[in-house]
Structure formats: C-alpha cells, structure tokens
Amino acid sequence: MTALVERVRTLPGWARSALIATGLVLALSITVTLTGQTQLASSGTSQAAVGLGLPILFAALGGLWSERAGIINIGLEGMMVLGTWGAAWAGYYGGPWAAMLGGLVFGGLGGLVHAVATITFHVNHIVSGVAVTLLGTGLTKYLATLVFAPLSQNPRQSPRIDGFTEFSVPGISEGLAAVEAQQRVFVSDLAGLLSGLVTGLTPIVVLGIVLVPVSYWALWRTAFGLRLRSTGESPVAAESLGVHVVAHRYVAVVTSGGLAGLGGAALVLNSAQLGYLENQVGGRGYIGLAAMIFGNWRPAGLLTGSALFGYVDGLQLRAGGEAVHALLYTATLVAVAGAVLWAIRRMWTAAAVALGAGVLVYTVYWTIESVPSEFASYAPQLVTLIVLAAASQRLRPPAWLGEPYRRGEGS
C-alpha cells in the first residue's frame, strides 16, 4: 500500500488532480446515496457554482499576475467594484461585449493606480490596496449617483442591461442530462456535476475558463512570463540580467486590475442581476485572493479554490441548510480518507489531526438535523477559511512578495 501511495506521488500534477477530483465525487456520491440530498451533485447546483465562482476566478487570476511579480494586491476588491460600474455603464450603451470591455478598462485603471503607488512611489502594498478599495467604492457611488440616478431613478443601481444569450455544448449536454436522470450511483452524480460545465454557458464564462490555461502558458511557458516571475522572486538578480523590472511589474499589476474588472463584469452580466447594484461585489475580491493563496500561487490551484467557493455558495442558495448539513457528512469522509493516507505514509501527526477533525465534524452532523440559515449563508466563507488553514503548511509565496524595491539596487 505504501508503494502504491508513493507511486501516485510520482504521477504528473494533472493526474494527481484527476485522482483527487474522482475521490471527492465518490465522497459526494456516497453522501447523496445515504442522505438523499440529490442537490449535492445536481446539474443545477453545478451550473450555479459556475456562475458564482466565475467572479472569484477572475479576481484570483488577477491576484496571481500581480503577486507573481512581487506586488501584493488586496485592492482586488476595489478593482472589481470599479469593474462593476464600468461594465454597467458600457453595457447600457453598447451591450454585453461593451460591458466586458468596460469592466476590463475600469479595473485596469484601478490596477494602474495601485501600480503607480507601489512601484513608482514605493507605498506599502497593503496601504495602497486598502486605499484603492476605498477609492473604488467611493468613486463608484459618486458615479452611480451622477450617471445612473437620472436613468433608473435609483442612485444605487443601474438600469437593466442586455446580457449574453446562453448556449450549451450540443450533444454532450443532452447526453449528460440523460445519464443524470437515470440516478445511478457515482455515474449519475458525475454526470450531474459535469453537466453544469457544458450547459447555460456564456462568452464570459468561456473566457474565464480559457484564461486559466492561458495564464499558465503566459507565465510559465514564455520568456516574458519567466522575466515577470523573476521580478517577484529576485528583482535584483533579474535587473542584473537585463530585465526591466519596473515595466514588467507595471504590466503585471495593470493586467491584475483588468482581470479583477472582468470579475466585476461577470457579476453585472449574471442573468440574475444584469446591471450594477451597490455593494454587489460583497467581498469577492478578498475571497479571490484567498483562493489564489489556497492554490499556492498556481493557476490550477486557484481554479480549485474558486470552484470550491462557488460550489458551496451555489449549494446553500439552491438547497439551504439541509444540503449544507449533508455536506458535513462528505467532509467527514474526506477527513477520514486523508487520515488513512497520512497513516500509510507514517505521517502520524497529520493523520491524528485529520481523524480528530473528522470525528468533530461527524459529531456536529449527528447532533443537529439542519444547519440554521444564518450559518448556512456563511458556509462558503467558513469553508474558505478552513481550507486555507489546512493548506497553509505547503504554501510557498514568491520570495520578494511585498518587499520594497528601487531600480538600481542591484548595481
């Protein structure tokens, strides 16, 4: 058994990720069978998870670009807020494609402010990020009152804008729906989860998914990406080799703001909203940052973190406290499986902690019949915190992240 575990560890990253995903689906399938909570693996929940996780994904990608260049960006929240206003304003006059462009441009402007403050004037990154968030929030309130109030008679929201026409992948979506309807253990659950990924799509959803491998290719498979990442690992060494550190950092932070702005546009173009609404970002910029940290500053990892938040959020919105309660059973299975694997590898402390966590979660599951709605609504944030805490031991941020740098220090 130990040899099998060690062999799995030698597999490529994508293969290990596929095995972990299969294990999670199996745990969900067992939970569905034993609890009858079919919403845990339904296509509706999966589709809701895509819509709710998309803004988080854009924000996380924005954080990835900025922090790989050594610039902490907690201003993602403010850049998303700017993106919501820009998307609603442009979308009102030019349609959904213009809304995407408006979100990109306004978010990029927020990123430019952060870049000027941190790179040119060497302002503390945290202070600058907070300032950008405050600036974005205040500016959008003023602009909404100035521009939207005469149109919608409400200074806190814009008129309704046109959204994208949804589409599904022909053939695949119908086939998955047919398999899901058969209610077969594991197979139907897997089909339900996959169905949400090919049904009710829009161009901005496709863009978000495509940007994950594109970001990986740009940052890890190109000379430009190598130079950009070197500015986050050791700008002094990068400069000594001829890399223009300031220029690469500017590109990274402005790109970060643009991606966060697209996250704001994703909120505006959500079929349930289709417009700007004050406070609609609701902390998603910070959650995107958490998803990026959970993903260890890697595209595939932040995709997993964004999907996790979107899934839990979609589940509690669609099925409420009873479904979240059933999810505790899934968490118990995952904790026990982790304890077994760590015990096989003779990592006794980790195994004991995982087993203890599993017992604690199962005790909560056994003693209550449903998670109160007041707690269920905060389940996504709680899950994010727990996962971050569990993953904190393996994190490796860029070496120069948040450190001040002035051009010429390496000479």
SSE inventory with pairings:
Elements lengths: L1 H8 L3 H23 L7 H26 L7 H19 L1 H25 L4 H28 L19 H10 L5 H9 L7 H18 L2 H11 L1 H6 L4 H24 L15 H11 L4 H46 L3 H20 L5 H4 L2 H13 L20
Helix pairs in contact: 2-14, 3-8, 3-9, 3-12, 3-13, 3-14, 4-5, 4-6, 4-12, 4-13, 5-6, 5-12, 7-8, 9-10, 10-12, 13-14, 13-17, 14-15, 14-17
Rg: 22 Å
Portion of residues in beta strands equals: under 5%
Second-tier CATH architecture: Orthogonal Bundle
Number of helices: 17
Q: How many runs of DSSP E, i.e. beta strands?
A: 0
Q: Name the shape in a single word.
A: globular
Pattern of helices and strands: HHHHHHHHHHHHHHHHH
Helix proportion: over 70%
- For the record, what CATH class applies? Mainly Alpha
- End-to-end separation in angstroms reads 54 Å
**What's the assembly state of these chains?**
single chain
**Contiguous uncertain segments of 5+ residues:** none
Q: How is the CATH topology named?
A: ABC transporter involved in vitamin B12 uptake, BtuC
Mean of pLDDT: 88
Return the domain count: 1
**Which structural class should the secondary elements be placed in?**
mainly alpha
The biggest sheet amounts to: none
What do these coordinates show?
The longest helix has 46 residues, at 299-344. The chain has one domain: ABC transporter involved in vitamin B12 uptake, BtuC (Orthogonal Bundle). With 411 residues, the protein is mainly α. It contains 17 helices and no strands. The relative contact order is 0.18. Helix content is 73%, strand content 0%. It has helices at residues 2-9, 13-35, 43-68, 76-94, 96-120, 125-152, 172-181, 187-195, 203-220, 223-233, 235-240, 245-268, 284-294, 299-344, 348-367, 373-376, 379-391. Pfam families: BPD_transp_2.
